[in-house]
Specification:
The protein is of the alpha/beta class and 485 residues long. It has two domains: 3-321, HUPs (Rossmann fold, 3-Layer(aba) Sandwich), CATH 3.40.50; 366-484, no CATH class. The chain is built from 19 helices and 17 strands. Strands 4, 5, 6, 7, 8, 9 and 10 form a seven-stranded antiparallel sheet that branches. The chain has a five-stranded parallel sheet with strand order 3-2-1-13-14, sandwiched between helices. Helix 4 (99-112) packs across helix 7 (251-265), helix 5 packs across helix 9 (291-304) and helix 15 runs antiparallel to helix 17. The radius of gyration is 24 Å and the shape is globular. It binds zinc ion (2 copies).
């Protein structure tokens, strides 16, 4: 049994969760942690509310609310949305209310303080609104790829925009032009760690878009990353002269403090020192736009901290579109998880989101397609699963033949850490279901459905429970009698 910490990128508490979140890191992280637990591993499944993200005050200014009070409400809303689709984190930490988060931030700031320099650095500022354009309050064009972005991490190419290369910025509060100013910031000369990070990540499985990205980014060993943002949302840290550190640097502090605060409340799961060690595997599910902070920033921090886990596995996703347009919490262009979960079974939402997950390329959600798939594919399978009888029994050779069926083997590959893909798992499971249904001898045999239950377990936990319950040898006859009575 190994120890795994599975993380999903912390959502900004500026609104509820929509399908873009679900088909991004959340469902994949849940499928991953369910699979690892099924294999008998000890797993902590964590995320937290990203309370120090400047998109939160941007939202609460417009709503005339207090940021952390709103963040607490949104954390409740997000927790409920996740539960409606059977996703339950061990901890969904409220960062603003967890002292361990600030302590972990200090810890990592101390580790890198010697590699930082405090100096005047260009940023943008709106005099009318008294706002800085470090991130949520300023919009510009990414100097690397030219798409609309803030200057923190480009949502499209995932590079950290070089503010020296940027000449104009729009204030997101008044829509006026921000002016360039010089602000004293702590700049981390992070590039000196890149040879070690390259070495540590070389053996890690990752999708091609991330390996291509890292090959380019990690080649610049002179790269600097501004860490502090005076006048912006962030956590002041003593190690960096009590300047506020931004939330992207703090993500690893977030995951670490999730583990620490959870174990403090659940000592039966072990001690922090037993979990936060090089023997524990980190598995991060993240949007591709978070590649810099996670694969580059947190790997650099983990390499500097010999007592904790080694840099882990980073599984990236691209964006989901809605009817061809970007999901947007601020514009309300979204399908909210709560709305959909009021109309469809959780399993149907999960399985369709897995099938169409934007793992390596942008994908699109349309309600019409979902409704059609639900009627034609999901519903017949769910109904069929409730009518399993023990009409037939399979020989050991027949069971073995099913276990070596191409779809069953394909599923095993996609369920592995090395080639993890919820889209691949979902398609393979449906293909396997079709194989069973197409053959009378198989579809009459509980053993065949039991095998399907194994494949459905991380994707559709309710359907898997049905399959396992109806095919359990000793209970099954009574259950069938009861159902037909
Ligand atoms: Zn870009
Ligand atoms: Zn303004």
């Amino acid at each position: 049994m190994l120890k795994f910490i599975v993380t999903a990128t912390p959502p900004t508490p500026n609104g509820d969760l929509h399908l873009g979140h679900l088909s991004g890191p959340f469902l994949a992280a849940d499928v991953m942690q369910r699979r690892l637990k099924y294999l008998g591993h000890d797993v902590l499944f964590v995320t937290y509310s990203d309370d120090y993200q400047s998109y939160l005050p941007r939202k609460t200014q417009a709503l005339r609310r207090k940021p952390f009070a709103y963040a607490r409400l949104m954390r409740q809303a997000m927790t409920l949305s996740l539960e409606l689709v059977n996703i339950r984190f061990d901890t969904f930490m409220q960062a603003a209310d967890t002292p361990a988060y600030q302590h972990a931030g200090e810890h990592y700031a101390r580790l890198v303080a010697e590699q930082t320099q405090c100096k005047a650095h260009k940023t943008f500022y709106c005099t009318d609104c008294n706002l800085y354009g470090y991130e949520g309050f300023g919009r510009t064009q990414c100097n690397w790829c030219g798409t609309s972005s803030d200057t923190s991490q480009c949502e499209h190419c995932a590079r950290v925009p070089d503010v020296e290369q940027i000449s104009t910025m729009t204030c997101m509060s008044c829509q006026g032009q921000m002016q360039p100013v010089q602000v004293k910031q702590h700049i981390w000369k992070i590039g000196q760690n890149y040879p070690a990070v390259r070495h540590a990540l070389a053996r890690r499985p990752m999708r091609n878009c991330l390996s291509d990205y890292l090959a380019e980014v990690l080649s610049n060993e002179n790269e600097c990353w501004p860490l502090t943002r005076p006048g912006d949302a962030g956590v002041p840290v003593a190690a960096l002269d009590n300047y506020p550190v931004h939330t992207w640097f703090l993500g690893l502090a977030g995951y670490r403090s999730c583990v620490e605060s959870y174990l403090a409340a659940h000592p039966e799961r072990g001690e922090f020192a037993q979990w936060w060690t090089p023997d524990t595997e980190l598995v991060h599910l993240l949007g591709f736009d978070c590649s810099y902070s996670h694969a580059v920033g947190y790997s650099s921090l983990l390499m500097a901290d010999q007592s904790g886990p080694r840099p882990g596995t980073f599984i990236t996703n691209r964006f989901l579109k809605l009817d061809g347009e970007d999901f947007s919490t601020s514009r309300g262009h979204a399908v909210w998880i709560k709305d959909l979960a009021g109309q469809y079974p959780a399993d149907a939402i999960r399985l369709f989101c897995a099938l169409t997950a934007p793992e390596t390329a942008v994908s699109n959600f349309s309600r019409e397609q979902f409704q059609e798939w639900y009627q034609q594919s999901f519903l017949p399978l769910a109904k069929r699963a409730e009518q399993i009888t023990d009409a037939a029994s399979l020989s050991a050779a027949q069971v073995e033949s099913l276990r070596s069926h191409a779809s069953y083997l394909r599923w095993q590959t996609f369920a592995s850490l090395e080639a993890f893909s919820i889209a691949g798992m979902a398609q393979a499971a449906l293909d396997f279901a079709a194989v069973i249904q197409a053959d009378e001898a198989l579809s009459g045999a509980p053993q065949a459905w039991q095998l399907l239950g194994e494949l459905m377990q991380p994707l559709c936990p309710d359907l898997a429970d049905t399959l396992f319950a109806l095919t359990a040898c000793d209970e099954q006859p009574a259950k069938v009698l009861h159902e037909s009575a």
